[in-house]
Design brief:
The chain is 56% helix and 18% strand. It is an alpha/beta fold. Among the domains are: 1-129 and 458-519, Rossmann fold, CATH 3.40.50.300; 204-316. Strand 1 and strand 2 (13-19) form a beta hairpin. Helix 12 packs across helix 14. The relative contact order is 0.13.
Length: 552
């Protein structure tokens, strides 16, 4: 339900805000007053293209904001799929700058126009006397049948299973293609895998081998430096350890004179012990360091094998080679055992298809049962609106394959006149007849399922008198199940509304503005009287207006 519409800087509107009620809302006004402007602004938050030349003030941005109550429309999944906050009171906003740049928001979260349009279509349905393409759309016609059939849960179950069936079918095709390719490449994959497996690679060996080879190649220099360090610490005439021991002896003779010297003596002895340990470790490393041409040759051979494999496969590490080895193993496994997995999936898909065919059969039965009721109720509604002799035929046929909605295709055939052949509605109905036909169908759907807000833009053109009153009654009945906003020039329809809004031009200043106001009971009497007889209605017109409003 559209709760509130705020428009800023669009066409003749500087700032305008309208709060709508549930049920039937009526918009009336003089031709050119701005009723179509309001619809144009509303279309912007439904994702339509914007042009800055329609701005009221080219120096300011245009802002359109619609507040909707969305509980009951089952939109949670849409909001989750698009990472949007689902709020019972949801705000759609569109901002357009003078240079044509546009931004769109849903509950203050930026969205692209596609998302805005998709959500807008779920909240608002604008229908004019020229917008009758929907009624000829097979998807819409199927929606009508499904709404009356009342099998929403069954249809939802079918669609979920069909989606899984199609996903598995696509996976099967990919598996078949992959298996065929794997079989074709099996010898090549096996050769590569055997080569890697024979190498017995270890993820950490390359770094260790490179370090060991470096040590072997520099063994003489390492030994020389270690011996030098050991000599300076242990064996030299002025070795560090000899001098430190002498220093410790001197300190030991002074301990009795000063406690602080005793502490220094202990610390120095600790240093001597540590340096002695270091010298011993240096000696051990030096003794273990030696040239080994055989070992160096072995390491070179191993590293050359690793480098060759890395270069061949354009990889940089042994870990990446092991990853490739694992991938090759999987491809070989698929080539050898892929047919088993394919057969398993084929059986699963066959079972899914069988279940879908059963569900589709039940959907077909339900739709066939619903068709006569649709024909009867729509024809009765059309007769109420002055289209006696109309005939509607809901033609259902089966398709050879499963589709997203089952195996049924639907076609509405129509004749507006008794004795005339049935044909597709676009070929046999005028604009006014199609408008009344759409009104009848929408009224039928609304009695069975939740619909978005419907806006009728002067679809009452070409009707008058008693027929207009019947059209108004149908709209009134429709509004018992959903919000209806109707732009009309007929007093008989205007009198049916629960809320009545008057659109007018304000010429009180140097600039013309479009304004809107909700009419009080007495103002409605005057407005409907003017619609009956002109700008200066007499008492008879006023009395007639009161009768239309059931106020007399």
């Amino acid at each position: 339900m559209l709760q509130k519409l705020a428009i800023s800087n669009y066409a003749l509107i500087d700032n305008l805000e309208i709060s709508f009620d549930k049920g039937l809302n009526i918009l009336t006004g003089e031709t050119g007053a701005g009723k179509s402007i309001i619809l144009g602004a509303l279309s912007l938050i439904l994702g339509q293209r914007a042009e800055s030349r329609y701005f009221f003030n080219q120096q300011k941005k245009c802002v359109i904001e619609g507040t909707f109550l969305i509980n009951g429309f089952h939109l949670m999944s849409f909001f989750e799929e698009n990472d949007l906050d689902h709020e019972p009171e949801t705000i759609l906003r569109r901002e357009i700058t003078a240079d044509g740049k546009s931004r769109a928001f849903v509950n203050d979260t930026p969205v692209n126009l596609t998302v805005l349009k998709q959500l807008g279509e779920k909240l608002i349905d604008i229908h004019s006397q020229h917008a009758t393409l929907e009624i000829n759309d097979p998807d819409f016609q199927l929606l009508v049948v499904d709404s009356v059939a009342g099998h929403a849960e069954l249809l939802s179950d079918y669609r979920a299973k069909f989606k899984s069936y199609k996903k598995d079918s696509s996976r099967l095709q990919q598996m078949i293609a992959d298996s065929a390719q794997a079989k074709s490449d099996l010898d090549y994959y096996q050769f590569q895998f055997d080569e890697l497996e024979k190498a017995k690679l270890d993820a950490e060996e390359q770094e260790k081998l490179e370090q060991e080879l470096y040590a072997l190649n520099n063994a003489e220099e390492i030994k020389r430096s270690l011996l030098g360090a050991y000599y300076l610490m242990q064996d030299g005439e002025t070795a560090a350890l000899l001098q430190l021991r002498e220093a410790a002896h001197h300190l030991s003779t002074l301990e009795k004179f000063n406690p602080a010297i005793a502490e220094l003596h202990e610390r120095l002895k600790s240093v001597v012990i540590e340096l002695k340990d270091i010298a011993s470790e240096i000696e051990n490393i030096e003794q273990r360091t030696h040239t080994d041409e055989t070992r160096a040759s072995e390491i070179n051979d191993r590293l050359n094998l690793i480098y060759t494999l890395q270069k061949k496969h354009r990889l940089n590490t042994i870990s990446e080679l092991l990853g490739l080895q694992d991938d090759l193993s999987k491809k070989i496994e698929q080539a050898v055992h892929g047919d088993e997995e394919i057969e398993k999936l084929q059986k699963q898909i066959a079972a899914e298809k069988k279940e879908l065919e059963q569900l589709a059969g039940q959907l077909a039965v339900n739709r066939a049962k619903a068709a006569p009721g649709i024909e009867k109720q729509v024809v009765e509604a059309l007769a109420d609106m002055g289209m006696n002799g109309s005939t509607l035929k809901v033609e259902l046929s089966s398709t050879p394959s499963l589709g997203p909605d089952g195996t049924d295709s639907v076609r509405f055939l129509f004749s507006a006149n008794k004795g005339h052949a049935l044909a597709e509605m676009s070929k046999v109905a005028s604009g006014g007849e199609l408008s009344r036909l759409m009104l009848s169908i929408k009224s039928l759907i609304a009695s069975h399922t939740a619909l978005p807000t419907i806006i009728f833009d002067e679809i009452d053109s070409g009707v008058s008198g008693g027929v207009a009153n019947k059209v108004g009654t149908i709209m009134e009945r429709l509004a018992q199940n959903l919000q209806v906003i109707t732009i009309t020039h007929l007093p008989q329809i205007a009198s049916k509304g629960g809320s009545h809004y008057f659109v007018y031009k304000d010429n009180s200043s140097a600039t013309t503005y479009t304004r809107i106001k909700q009419l009080s009971e007495q103002e409605r009497v005057v407005e409907i009287a003017k619609m009956l007889s002109g700008d200066k209605p007499g008492e008879s017109a006023l009395q007639n207006a009161r009768e239309l409003l059931s106020l007399s």
